[in-house]
């Protein structure tokens, strides 16, 4: 026989307890608002640091990459290897905060599952292939064609982001993608005279499909990483994943270097081929190792903190800065087409930033209004008691 159950409501608390509970509730809400503001400041600081890494890494690595080829460096495997072999630098932010500075209670790689490790290694191989295709294509194609093909990555990125991470297409991001793509196309057309000597049709086709493949793979890499990062709960894990990915990409590149004689090519290039001498050759290699890590870590941080589309837009927008850097460092000619391209690039990027600013501002206003309403309700309940 089943007996009916009754839930007994607790007796109403005395008025003094109601006042105490109400006051406590108000204090808790104020503390939550303070913590939210503090978290927002930390987020903005981390975002600024990662974009600084991306800016410095992307522009500087492009310039030093060009310096390598200008002064008769030509090894495709060397230019592939330097893009990932600087991974030991990532050991510093992974281990120093816990073991030396004692500023975190989280041990390195804690919560790093075997599944996440395998995913990181798989993406590392993916990155190694992408780096190789990028170097292979740039070694064969004229600057104009390579720039034109790489500009397609942003359109690929938008399409793949819609499919993989359900990115919503808005006027803001579509307008930015169109403007930045037009900017890249104009930039490529302005460099149509930069055709390497002795370029055969066979080499041209190899370079064409290699560069197109590199653009597509990078566009795929961004939304795939965004989806993986949704399973990651802190920025430290992003750095740890990046360390594993770069190590794996380096193993891939080192195997290729060993099989194709890339290490002997480095010795020959430094001693006989590079026209600036061995010291500047190894300084160029070291600079590449450091700056490519800045670039990739900045990209990973942007994807984790924002979206894959924002990361792709920031990368493409920096093409304008590469133009300015080429003019400032190498004395490249800044013609009318390049100037228009740079203006379109800045216009598209600024319009996207403004749209993001207005979106965040509206979200903060909505959150503030909701918090104000809750505080008023608490105040009314306190008065009524």
From TrEMBL:
<dbReference type="Pfam" id="PF16913">
    <property type="entry name" value="PUNUT"/>
</dbReference>
<feature type="transmembrane region" description="Helical">
    <location>
        <begin position="140"/>
        <end position="165"/>
    </location>
</feature>
<feature type="transmembrane region" description="Helical">
    <location>
        <begin position="312"/>
        <end position="331"/>
    </location>
</feature>
<dbReference type="GO" id="GO:0016020">
    <property type="term" value="C:membrane"/>
</dbReference>
<keyword id="KW-1133">Transmembrane helix</keyword>
<feature type="transmembrane region" description="Helical">
    <location>
        <begin position="113"/>
        <end position="134"/>
    </location>
</feature>
<keyword id="KW-0812">Transmembrane</keyword>
<dbReference type="GO" id="GO:0005345">
    <property type="term" value="F:purine nucleobase transmembrane transporter activity"/>
</dbReference>
<feature type="region of interest" description="Disordered">
    <location>
        <begin position="1"/>
        <end position="22"/>
    </location>
</feature>
<dbReference type="InterPro" id="IPR030182">
    <property type="entry name" value="PUP_plant"/>
</dbReference>
<feature type="transmembrane region" description="Helical">
    <location>
        <begin position="279"/>
        <end position="305"/>
    </location>
</feature>
<feature type="transmembrane region" description="Helical">
    <location>
        <begin position="172"/>
        <end position="192"/>
    </location>
</feature>
<dbReference type="GO" id="GO:0015211">
    <property type="term" value="F:purine nucleoside transmembrane transporter activity"/>
</dbReference>
<feature type="transmembrane region" description="Helical">
    <location>
        <begin position="234"/>
        <end position="259"/>
    </location>
</feature>
<protein>
    <recommendedName>
        <fullName>Probable purine permease</fullName>
    </recommendedName>
</protein>
<comment type="similarity">
    <text>Belongs to the purine permeases (TC 2.A.7.14) family.</text>
</comment>
<dbReference type="InterPro" id="IPR037185">
    <property type="entry name" value="EmrE-like"/>
</dbReference>
<feature type="transmembrane region" description="Helical">
    <location>
        <begin position="45"/>
        <end position="69"/>
    </location>
</feature>
<feature type="transmembrane region" description="Helical">
    <location>
        <begin position="337"/>
        <end position="357"/>
    </location>
</feature>
<feature type="transmembrane region" description="Helical">
    <location>
        <begin position="204"/>
        <end position="222"/>
    </location>
</feature>
<keyword id="KW-0472">Membrane</keyword>
<keyword id="KW-0813">Transport</keyword>
<feature type="transmembrane region" description="Helical">
    <location>
        <begin position="81"/>
        <end position="101"/>
    </location>
</feature>
């Amino acid at each position: 026989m089943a007996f009916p159950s009754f839930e007994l409501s607790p007796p109403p608390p005395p008025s003094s307890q109601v006042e105490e509970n109400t006051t406590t509730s108000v204090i808790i809400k104020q503390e939550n608002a303070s913590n939210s503001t503090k978290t927002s400041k930390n987020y903005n600081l981390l975002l600024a640091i990662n974009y600084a890494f991306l800016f410095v890494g992307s522009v500087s690595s492009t310039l030093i990459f060009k310096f390598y080829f200008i002064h008769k460096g030509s090894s495709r495997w060397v230019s592939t290897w330097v893009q990932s072999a600087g991974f030991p630098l990532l050991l510093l932010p992974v281990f120093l905060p816990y073991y030396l500075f004692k500023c975190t209670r989280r041990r390195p790689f804690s919560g790093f599952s075997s599944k996440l490790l395998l995913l990181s290694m798989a993406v590392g191989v993916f990155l190694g292939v992408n780096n190789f295709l990028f170097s292979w294509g740039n070694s064969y194609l004229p600057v104009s064609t390579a720039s034109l093909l790489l500009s397609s990555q942003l359109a690929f990125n938008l399409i793949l982001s819609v499919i993989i991470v359900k990115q919503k297409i808005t006027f803001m991001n579509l307008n930015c993608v169109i403007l930045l793509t037009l900017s890249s196309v104009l930039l490529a057309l302005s460099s149509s005279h930069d055709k390497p000597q002795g370029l055969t049709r066979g080499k041209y086709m190899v370079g064409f499909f290699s560069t197109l493949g590199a653009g597509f793979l990078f566009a795929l890499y961004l939304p795939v990483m965004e989806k993986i990062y949704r399973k990651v709960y802190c920025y430290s894990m992003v750095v740890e994943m990046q360390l594993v990915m770069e190590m794996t990409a380096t193993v891939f590149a080192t195997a290729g270097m060993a099989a194709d004689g890339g290490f002997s090519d480095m010795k020959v290039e430094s001693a006989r081929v590079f026209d600036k001498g061995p010291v500047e050759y190894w300084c160029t290699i070291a600079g590449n190792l450091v700056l490519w890590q800045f670039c990739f870590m900045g990209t990973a941080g942007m994807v984790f903190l924002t979206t894959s589309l924002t990361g792709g837009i920031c990368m493409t927008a920096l093409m304008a800065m590469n133009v300015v850097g080429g003019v400032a460092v190498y004395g490249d000619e800044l013609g009318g087409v390049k100037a228009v391209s740079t203006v379109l690039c800045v216009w598209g990027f600024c319009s996207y930033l403004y749209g993001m600013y207005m979106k965040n501002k509206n979200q903060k206003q909505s959150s503030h209004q909701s918090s104000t309403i809750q505080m008023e309700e608490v105040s009314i309940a306190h008065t009524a008691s």
